[in-house]
Amino acid sequence: MNIGLLLFIPNRYVENRMLAAVVNAGFEVTQAQARVLMRVGPQGSRLTELAEAAQVTKQTAGFLVDQLEQAGYLERVPDPSDGRARLVRVTRKAMAAVPIANEEMARMEEEWEQHIGKRRMTQLREALEMLGEITDPYR
């Protein structure tokens, strides 16, 4: 199996588990919405930035942001650096899902460590962080 698929399968598993945990806690969000929601920067993001980060068209990002705004997870506010532009920001409602997702991630990491061992888990994390140095355009 090629390395791309070996990386994709656990990533998909993580996304599915985290989304299930958040949905089970009462948050109504789809996987597509979550992918956009997770990419909103701490100070907010422009729609074009979200589309690029989520690797979707600007129209798709706008549609998903509209849905998330109607559900109370995102808000649009004026961009302080450009009065003509708008920023998309997460709301308190969206931030309430973060601890749930983080707890689920911690459970997964513990399960994986039990399965492959502490040393290999540490090596996996270190290797992925090193790969991030050359593969993550948003770093």
From TrEMBL:
Pfam families: MarR_2. It comes from the Bacteria. InterPro entries: HTH_MarR-typ, MarR/SlyA-like, Tscrpt_reg_MarR-type_CS, WH-like_DNA-bd_sf, WH_DNA-bd_sf. Keywords: DNA-binding, Transcription, Transcription regulation. It comes from Lentzea miocenica. This is MarR family transcriptional regulator. Residues 1-133 form the HTH marR-type domain. PROSITE patterns: HTH_MARR_1, HTH_MARR_2.
